[in-house]
Amino acid sequence: MKTILLFLALxxxxxxxxxxxxxxxxxxxxxxxxxxxxxxxxNVGGPNLRFKLTPKWAVGVAAVPSLFIFKGKAEPKxxxxxxxxxxxxxxxxxxxxxxxxxxxxxxxxLGYKFL
Length: 115
Fold this sequence. Notes:
By secondary structure, the protein is mainly beta. It has 1 helix and 9 strands, in the order H-E-E-E-E-E-E-E-E-E.
């Protein structure tokens, strides 16, 4: 009996020790609609780098595969978007490179994360 009590005494947990959260990685499904000057863009989630500030808030940057509609013509484009996440919602501002004008076209919009 003394051995069991000694064993329990040596293995008690200290509730003052803060547990560190392990590194996590995963997939995320998101969709958004953004608008700009004569532009509407329907975007889906792409690879992104985010920094979680709190359990609900995060900031980051993402590659955004999109259906880019400019002056009535639709084409697939890849945008680069800074983003702010709050829970399941995100604000993002994708920029799209316009090869003909050699300029960037920027849009702004709201999205929802499904996962």
